[in-house]
Amino acid sequence: MSESIRRPPRKSVVGRPRPGQYLLAGFVSGFLAGVALIALTSWYSSYHGFPELMPFRYVASLAQGPTGIPTHTLWIGMAVHSVLSALLGLVFAIFTSWIRSASLVALAGLVFGAAVYIVDFQILARVVTQFSAFRTVDQPFMASVHLVFGAVLAVLVLLGARRDAGLRPYYATETERRTEV
Question: DSSP labels for 91-128?
Fold first, then answer.
């Protein structure tokens, strides 16, 4: 075959980031999505006349039990929420590392946020004593804010790990993919 007729090797349209990119992006994205979640719950708490830092007391009860030490509650709540959010982001990144579609990752983020809410506020709050304080919060608000957590998490993972991967939208057809190469 002559050089003029030979076609260049076909590039992969949908790139795949390295596994380390997913783990780092998941960890950082989880932390940042947790900041968004706690900011929304702090705003909601103050809007309804409660202290802005009340959400940290609820989270601190995971480590201290329902009757925590009031002087250290804020710092313990911040630490527990930050670590749990970052670890949840890591888990999300691991589970979505094989998904090639940004739309499906976004949908997975919503499902993940809903699953975190169901596990924490509906299952563990009824079974585990440390989670019992979660039964007293506004459940519809917490469900919606966990959906926001999942959506923010998905967007940040996509931006962090897949920024240079050439990810194509879910609706792109095979014909469109062939013409982009």
Answer: HHHHHHTT---HHHHHHHHHHHHHHHHIIIIIIIHHH-
pTM of the model: 0.76
- Asked if residue 1 belongs to a domain, the reply is no
Q: What Å distances lie between residue 20 and 23, 25, 34, 78, 150, CA to CA?
A: 5, 8, 21, 26, 21
User: b or e along 99-128 (b: 16 or more beta carbons within 10 Å of the residue's beta carbon)?
Assistant: bebbeebbbbbbebbbebbeebbeebbeee
Pair 36, 151: CB distance under 8 Å: no
Comparison of pLDDT for 33 and 101, the residue scoring more: 33
121 and 62 in contact (C-beta within 8 Å)?
no
Tokens of 70: 């009031």
Quote the domain boundaries for residue 91: 19-163
Name which of 163, 25, 34, 36 is nearest 94 in CA terms: 25
Eight-state DSSP code of residue 9:
P
pLDDT tens readout for residues 48-90? 998 888 888 888 878 777 665 566 778 888 999 999 999 999 9
Rounded CA separation 144/38 (Å): 13
